[in-house]
Amino acid sequence: MRKIFDIFKRFLPPYKKYVVWSLIFNFFATIFSLFSFAALIPILQILFGLKKTEVAFMAWSWADSFSHIVEAFKNNFSYYLNHLIQNSGPELTLLYISLFLIVLTALKTGSTYLGVRVTIPMRTGIVRDLKNKLYRKIVSLPIGYFTEERKGDIMSRMLSDINEVEMSILNAVDMIFKNPLMIIIYLGVMFIMSWQMTLFVLLLLPISGWLIGLIGRNLRRQSAEAQSLQGAMLSQMDETLGGLRVIKAFNAETKVENRFAALNERIRKTFNSVYARYNLASPLGEFVGTVVIAILIWFGGVMIVGNHSTIGAAEFIYFLVIFYSIIGPAKELSKAYYGIRKGMAALDRIDTILEAENNIPEPKKPVEIKAFQNQIEFKDVSFKYQSEWVLQNINLTVAKGKTVAFVGQSGSGKTTLIDLLPRFYDVKKGEILLDGVNIKKIKTQDIRKLIGNVNQEAILFNDSFYNNIAFGVEHATMEQVIEAAKIANAHDFIMATENGYESTIGDRGSKLSGGQRQRISIARAILKNPPILILDEATSALDTESEKMVQKALENLMKNRTTMVVAHRLSTIQKADEICVLHEGQIVERGKHDELIALNGYYKKLVDMQSF
Asked: Are strands 562-566 and 403-407 parallel, antiparallel or unpaired?
């Protein structure tokens, strides 16, 4: 329950007016319901001749005791009823009572609808706020967080888990703003009518509540397991769609189908158990309620027959109707309880993301830096992802306007090193200085504004050429986008498409070749116009012809910029101002191309292997 109230505490403040209106409408619905039930008393009195024959009007005032006011109300109700029967006859009286019942029922149902209607903007608004908060958190978390998580599982939390929470919120809204109010008012009227029978009922209710609570104990754990399996299924589907070419090439369709079927069967069995327990709430609540009513009929009947009751037979029927009306809200409460237990597991999974710690914190008093002036310095930098050091004691200075290349075998730490500058990860030891300022003292956004990235895999979006090139650059004009595309050698193939710059490029640029995707990525970096450029194996996945086009675009991009290049194809970095050779996380050689060749060391071996 604490988690549900925590949701209201976090998200309800903007929706207070809906809460107030819901309470008002539900209050009136309950009052109208009581008065519509009260129409049973005169009907029974007329039909079965239970009306009192001699009733005198009883005077009263608000200064009288509560019990006297209640007694006067009951007495005068019988007085006016007898008076109406004597003047209009029983037939016309029944007609008046029936019309009264219709009007009150219309008021009750209208108020009930309005009570639910005003909660809809609140419920949908809470879900919207929760989705926005979760999405903002996902975007704000560092890249390192997602290396530990499955993409499909995160998507499951964003979609199915939030949908699950939505249902639990709906039940909780009914529970908090409607059902308890009805139960309290109904019990209050029952106390006024007969406190002895009401106390007897209240002794029975905790027993029935305990029986219902037994079923929901394991529901949260089973629901958490079911949601986790849903995340695993989304991950598997994502892997299948991404690796369909490999699956077909290795004739592995049967293998992945069997793996999916096994997981699907586990999900089915888990949900069988969850829904079996969840759907047991309503019939069990109805059965327990009927047992309580049967016992109450016996207890009240004995009191009335023995003349030990303060109410008559007609009032006892009204008492039973009120109590039976409590069973409906009580059943909804029990079902809402199970829904909350079921939704709590989904909420816990969402909160693991919302409460995840960002291990790349923003500085409390950031140093403002608007432009890159002098140099980038890596001073005694060491880094590890988990236990083993990936980089050790890196010391490097990159002067403004220079190009520094990083080469070495796979796993030597090249990409990790350049990922430290934009703070995709934070150094564990040492520091990185930008114009003499530790980058941990600069706002992350300010650092990244100065940097342009072109990666080995061109990360594009299922959108138009224009929006992909202008991505991250506010208020970019079409003329600026075209100019960037021309510099990147992308303008010609863009104009060859049906709608030019408004043509969509497909999922991750699937309508384009590798070289075309890379040139769009370069055009995006050109439009950003950053003083610092990071190129991470930007041409390694391309054929010779595409590489030539992309390399020319890169040369245009690198003019008058400070560039850090990771390269496997050594032919592309021979003109670099400095080449750093990394081996097992350390810089083992550095210098220009000719100098490193003369050393006859690691770099010479790499060149010889590629030449061969």
From this structure: parallel
What b/e sequence results for 185-202 when a residue is b if at least 16 CB atoms lie within 10 Å of its CB, and e otherwise?
A: bbbebbeebbeebbebbe
CB neighbour burial string for 568-606, b if at least 16 within 10 angstroms, e if fewer: bebebbeebebbbbbeebbbebbeebeebeeeeebbeeb
> CB-based burial of residue 455 (10 Å sphere; 0-12 exposed, 13-18 middle, 19+ buried)?
middle
Weakest mean pLDDT among 174-183, 201-210, 381-390, 466-475: 201-210
Q: 565: phi > 0 → left, psi -120 to 50 → alpha, else beta; which?
A: beta
In angstroms, rounded to a whole number, what is the distance separating the alpha carbons of residues 236 and 249? Answer: 18
Residue 229 neighbours by CB under 8 Å, 6+ apart: 263, 266, 267, 270
Q: In what order do the strands lie in the sheet with 578-583?
A: 451-455, 532-536, 562-566, 403-407, 578-583, 586-591
Amino acid at the residue 475: H
Dihedral in degrees, nearest 10, Cα atoms 468, 472, 476, 482: -30
pLDDT tops 90 at residue 177: no
> Can you tell me whether residue 594 is helix, strand or coil?
helix
With CA atoms as reference, report the closest residue to 525 among 563, 492, 570, 494: 563
> Which residues pair with residue 563 across a beta bridge?
403, 533
Nearest to 324 by CA among 203, 412, 201: 201
pLDDT digits (tens, 9 = 90+) for 359-388: 888 888 888 888 888 999 999 999 988 888
Instruction: Give the pTM.
Output: 0.71
C-beta separation of 509 from 460 below 8 A: yes
The Cα 477–Cα 3 span in angstroms is 48
Single-letter residue type at 414 = K
If you count them, how many residues does the chain have?
612
Residues in Cβ contact with 216 at an 8 Å cutoff, skipping those fewer than 6 apart = 277, 281, 337, 338, 341
3-state secondary structure string, 365-416?
CCCCCCCCCCEEEEEEEEEECCCCEEEEEEEEEEECCCEEEEECCCCCCHHH
Q: Output phi, psi for 244, to 5 deg.
A: -60, -35
First to last CA, the chain: 69
> Can you state the angle between helices 119-140 and 16-38, rounded to 10 degrees?
150
Distance, C-alpha 298 to centroid of its chain: 51
> Would you list the DSSP string of 258-275?
HHHHHHHHHHHHHHHHHH
- 427-465 residue pLDDT tens: 999 999 999 999 999 998 889 888 888 887 778 888 899
The token pair that represents 539 in the structure block = 């041409």
Structure tokens at 586: 């350390």
| CA–CA separation, 489 and 493 (whole Å) | 9
Query: How far apart are the C-alpha atoms of 134 and 353, rounded to whole Å?
Result: 7
Give the pairing type, strands 429-434 and 403-407: unpaired
